[in-house]
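Lab notebook: predicted structure, single chain.

Context: the supervisor wants predicted structures on file for every construct in the current expression panel, including those that have not yet been purified. This is the next one on the list. No modifications to the sequence; it matches the entry in the shared construct table.
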Amino acid sequence: MTTAKSDEVAGQGPAAPATPADRRERERMRRRAARRRGGGWWPYLFLAPWFVGLFGLTIYPMLDSLYLSFTDFDLLSPAKWVGTENYSRMFTDDPVFWDSVHATLLYVVVSVPLKLALALGVAMLLNRDLKGIGLYRAAFYLPSLLGGAVAIAIVWRQVFGGDGLFNDFLGWFGIKGQDWISSPDSALYTLVLLAVWQFGTPMVIFLAGLKQLPKDVYEAAAIDGARPVTRFFRITLPLLTPIVFFNLVLQIIDAFKTFTPAFVISNGTGGPLNSTMLYSLYLYKKGFTDLQMGYASALAWVLFLVIAGFTAVNFVASRYWVHYDD
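Prediction complete. Output recorded below exactly as produced.
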């Protein structure tokens, strides 16, 4: 006795082979079901505004600025192709460019580590279950909401002026102050202090990371007699390295793009003696004050490549000091 095939039914013969029409109908049904699962063209309709913004406000302006970087363009007459002249001029015949590079690198190297260190320290102080702790967290975050405003930069210029509050504070200790904004040796560091004062954003990110650290590890370390400093360097900091890396990348990018404080505090001049001539300020001056838009576009692309290079280096170096769960 032989076994019937799976497509046979008791008392019936084998199923009739599918005709080409049946196969085409099944294929249409399969495609129709796939379209229903994928949503058809509706997702693309809802994404259309984003695509318009991406291509119209990001990709096209970037490509246009790349073209302009190889031209002589003053916003009033048609662009004239000059090849790599803007780039060669930048690196060989423009001393102010190197002043802006020096000021920007010094600003980034000094402000970013201080800002992250202060943000982490305050986050650890606020990582406690105390009454009214939410109010304190909001108060420490407030400078980050106000720090980028023109009004705060104006206030900062008044605070560190010759008759400002900072000199009044020094006078209580018998120390004679100076006009910190007008001194080329100290003007840039007033911008650094303003940047460090805006530590709220990395602080909130650090605080979120601290909330996720396992408490049993700290309990075991406390039982073993580990001191708070030891627990910080052996437990907290290694577990927070992904958060430190994230904040480091974001803050370096933001520091390179700093514009408003330098513009307001120096009255748009980058003085004294180009000590506050940050790169973004110099780019703005060449493009909208001197009407050298082609040269400004070249400056913008150099800044883009520098930021991309710093970010790439951070990602490569992160494999040696950033520790993940796995």
